[in-house]
Structures are given as structure tokens and as C-alpha cells.
Amino acid sequence: MSPTDRKVPEEPGRAAVDHDTVPPARTGLLVLAGVLLLVPIVALMWVGSYSRVDPKLGAFPFFVWYQFLWVFITSALTYTAYRIVLVARPHRPMTGDDATAGTGEGR
Amino acid sequence: MSGIDGVALTVLVLLFLLVTGLGFWATRWRRPTSMESLDEWGLGGRSFGTWITWFLLGGDLYTAYTFVAVPAAMFALGAVSGFFAVPYTIVLYPIIFVFMARLWSVSHRHGYVTTADFVRGRFGSRGLSLAVAVTGFLATMPYIALQLVGIQAVLEVVGLGGGGNIVAKDAPLFIAFALLAAYTYSSGLRAPAVIAFVKDTLIYLVILVAIIYLPAKVGGWGEVFSAAEAKMTAAAPDGKPVGSFVPAESAHWAYATLGLGSALALFMYPHSVTASLSAKSRNTIRRNASILPAYSFVLGLLALLGWVAIAAGTTPVGLDGEPNAQLVIPQLFEDMFPSWFAGVAFAAIAIGALVPAAIMSIAAANTFTRNIYKEWLKPDATPQQEAKVSKLMSLLVKAFALVFVLVLDKQNAINFQLLGGIWILQTFPAVVLGLYTRWLHRWALTAGWAVGMVYGTWQAWNAANPRSGVDHFGSSLANIPVIGELGYIALTAFVLNLLVAVVLTLVLGVVKAPPGEDETIRGDYFADEDDPRVVKDLDALSPSTPTH
């Protein structure tokens, strides 16, 4: 898609968006996603909680099967976080003149 | 072991030829109008969807060296040295989920190919950008060399490479790498993307078969774990246990910091960034963060094969007659599998080396081209010239890696790889924090980087390992100041790096040092595939400026 396709004029009545802003988001949902992502990191960095042999699962020491279990838990948490951020911050298309012109103001 | 295993070798060669053919064919896969730009050659047209990215990143991150070294560490030293790879590759994904989408978006908007490109644009600092580029380049070189070590391990067990004269000894490795160099040159990132399908399929197949078949042959998992526990808890000549079955209290910090430090570092490597930026949309990487752990599961199983080898009584001895733990997995396969399947397994490891080696050499070449050649040597380089320089550089980088492994002791490659991991993490503040804030001053970030590099290198140099009789680079662990426990050097250096950056930012704020120009706007960090690219005046003159 080339920029020339985008010469469509803005819909009348719709204010031009200032793209040098963060697109709006539902903060509560973003925090929730952040917590879901933080859980596996905390759990696995807390080595003392799982560096033991018992209870075994079959022949597998707790240390081994517990960490394997976290592969699946983390995958599920990450996917949930993904669904949440999609809702939390819908994409704001970049249109208008300042979308293609590089601005270099800094902050 | 003597002689050549003919059946295994034949299977290995056939599979190798198959991927070589695929590598050359890849030029025509999802055919671009022109390969004459870094976007096409170096990033596969930034067009890969979720599944291609999954195969590509999986093939890229889980390297042949990982497949050889992780079980070798489990076999020789146990859980702290080997099994940390599991928490490492689990916490990796929540971490990249957070920042990779932003890096993708801003790179899409501004046409960045490397992290140093981003740092240049964000902080307006050529010096900081150069620091990031040089670090990435230096950290990648030994990593490529280690992929060769992975192939060598396989060839050695098959019985090749032990010949008397140097030509016969290294010819197979040389041919393998020459072919890799040729198709990477012509197909760019498309070659490893296609080969990754074969690599990953073979790896999954071999490991699933191994994990079901091998423990049964040695008496079941109970036998495996009791043999491992017996070996690890026995006393070594110095009176301490040989290794760890389950990390002891004193090793908790080591285990956690190795995992976290490695996870933070991995996506600072140019090859990880290259594979991520080749994705076609902002959310491709996020979706991948929830499906890539499949590889972590397989890596964990593979780590356990190191303990299976203990129960099986595998004795890894090199062709020079010296014990070499690195050979344990190929040797286990050779001993326990029928020849033809051993061949498939060897092919999985050897092809497993090709994918990362190709991506790493492309990434290192892109870094050189964008951040050294174009930035410092030839600012008016056209995209065609960039692609040309990058292609040549990818050859040079591989040639260097080959010489590195063939001429120097491969322990050097392993030492440098250890250093590379420490170094690359020092680019994290500029890159990742830079994605969120311009608060940190570019000079403070540069100073923090320098302090982290020096401190990390010094600590690694001082890390002795009395048991194996080395005075330097004997371990990636060192005492953490203040906390007083053993921890991963990279993470300690990283914390120091951050402290320096924060303190100096405050100081530079007081003296009102110029902050540098930021060419990005806030919205850039949320852009997606349909959003237009920023058109730069300079590039507007060139007909081949990508316009999507």
C-alpha cells in the first residue's frame, strides 16, 4: 500500500488526530495484562519455591515437572494478555499529513 | 569409536543436500520484485506471518549449539548449569511480549533494520548508536563460530574430521559452510526461513522419539533420575559435589539470575531482532510469544537427555582421545539409535546450525552496513549499495567464523560467547528503555554502557574455575556486590549500567546538556502494517525507497 493510496481526504467533521500522542487505552486492562505477564517471571525467579525433589510426578522430581508445567501456564497467560491488550488499546490508524512527515521535536 | 558410520552419514548427507536445494530455491519463494534492498534481502520483505515467524524464530533462537551445550552441561554439571535454560526460555516470552511490538512499530514507520538504527533515530546520537552496533556485531561473531562447533560435534561422532592432514580433517565443515554462504548470499533471509521448516520439523521429531524411546532402553525415567542424582551428589576430587541435581540454597541466586539475565539479553542480539522485524505486523510477535514456548518445552526435554546419557553410561570421547562433554548428545544417539535414525538426528543438529548461522550472519552484516558503513563511511549509499555491502559482509562474517573455529582453540569461541552474552545485555537500557522514554540522557546511556562493558569483561576475566584448572573465563557467575551471593555477571553489570545511566541523567539535567533530536513521535510506537511509513527527504530521491 503506497502513501498515494491514502490521499483520501479526511471525513468532514472528524478532527485531525495529533499522532504525537499515545493512542487512548483502558488503563485498567493494560495493568491486568501486565500482571498476567509478571506472574511467570516472579514464579520462576523464586527458585526457593520449587528447588526440591518431592512431591514427585511419577519418576519426575518436583523441580523438573513444575518448571515444565510453567511452560503451559505462561503460554496461556501470554495469550490471555494478548487478547486483553487488543481490547485495551484498539489500533488508531495513522492518517493525515503528519503521518508521513517525520517530526523531530523530541520531548 | 573408530571408523565411519556409513548409513548415518548417507542419511545426513542426503538431508543436507535437500536443505541446500531449498536454500537456493528460496530466492523464488514469495518472490520479491527486487532483492536489491536490505528490506528484501535482509528482512525477507518484512512480510512473514505468524507461522513463518514461529518457525523462523524457533529455528533462530534454539541453535545447534544450544542443543549440544545444554544437555552437555546437564551431563557434566547438572541443573544449575543446564536446566536454567528452561526458566530462561519461559520468562523470555512475557518480556518480549511487552517491548517487541513497540520496536516493530517504530521500525516499520522509520524503516529501521537494526536496534542501532532505532537508537540513532530516537536519541539523535551517533556515538550511542555506534556503541550498540559494535556490541551487537562483536557478540554475534562468536555465536556464529559456535554453530560450527555444533556441526563439528556431529561430524566427529559420525567419524569424519579425524583424518591426519588438515585438509581432510576440515573439508566437510568447509563444504557445508561454503554452501550455506552461497545460498545466504543469493536468497538472504528467505533461505533460513525456508530451511527452518525442515530444521524445526526434524528437531521435534528427533526429540520426541528420543524422549520416548531412550529412557525405556535404559530402564525408565526412575533409573534416569537416580543415576543423575547419584552422579551429581557424589564428591568430586575437591570434596564438593560434582554438580547439582536440584539447585542447593546457595545456588538459587545463580539459577534465577542466569535465567533472567539470559532472557533479557536474547532479544538484544541482532539475529533475534532481524527475525522479529521480518514479521509482517505488529501483533505477529505478540501472538508468537504465546506459541514459541513449544520450543522451550522441547529444550527442557533435550536437557533431560543429558541425564538420560548418564543412565546410559555414554562416554563422550573425541577423535583425539580426550573426553569431551560437548559430544554427549551425538554420542548418545550414535550408541542407542539404529544407524539410519542416528543419521536423521545428526542432520537435525547440523541443519539446526545452518538456520541460526545464516540469520546471524545476515544480522551482523545488516548492522555493519547500516550503522558503520552508511553511518560513518558512505552516508549517501543507495539501498542497492546497502544490499550489496550486506551480502558481501555476510560472506566475510562467515569466513571469519570458520577461521576462528579452525585455527584457534574452540574454547576461545566459547569464552567469547560468554563475554558476548554479558556485552549484549549492556545495550538493553538504550534500546528497551528508549522505546518507552527519552528521560535517560544519551550521554548517560553511553557512559552506563561503557561501565557495564568494562565491569562485565573484568569479572568474566577474573572468573576462575579451579576444578578444570582455568584462571580466566571459567564461569559466567561471580559474587554480586552488596547481596553477596553468586549471580550471573551480565545481570550485575546491567544493574550497574542502569545506575550509572540514571545518576548521570540527573547530573546532565542540572547542567542542561543538549538532549539530542528525536525523530520519532509517540504514535510511531503503536503503528501497524497499514500505517504509512515516514518519508525521509534523503530517501525520496531514490526510486527504490519502499513505499509500503
Task: Offer a quick outline of the entry.
The complex is a heterodimer of chains A (107) and B (548). Chain A has helices spanning 27-45, 62-88, 97-100.
Q: How is this structure best described in words?
A:
The complex is a heterodimer of chains A (107) and B (548). Chain A has 107 residues and is an all-alpha fold. Chain A has a domain of 66 residues. In chain A, helix 1 runs antiparallel to helix 2. Chain A is rod-shaped. The N terminus and C terminus of chain A are likely disordered. Chain B is mainly α and 548 residues long. Chain B has one domain: Sodium/glucose cotransporter. Chain B is built from 23 helices and 2 strands. In chain B, strands 1-2 form a two-stranded antiparallel sheet. The longest helix of chain B is centred in the middle third of the chain and has 39 residues. Chain B is globular, with a radius of gyration of 23 Å. Classes of the chains: A mainly alpha (107), B mainly alpha (548). At the A-B interface, helix 1, helix 2 and helix 3 of A face helix 6, helix 11, helix 12, helix 14 and helix 15 of B.
Number of domains of chain B: 1
Question: What's the helix count of chain B?
Answer: 23
CATH topology of chain B: Sodium/glucose cotransporter
Structural class of chain A: mainly alpha
Helix and strand composition category of chain B: mainly alpha
Distance between the termini of chain B: 57 Å
C-alpha Rg of chain A, in Å?
23 Å
Q: What's the rounded overall pLDDT mean of chain B?
A: 86
Give me the strand/helix succession of chain A: HHH
Mean pLDDT of chain A: 79
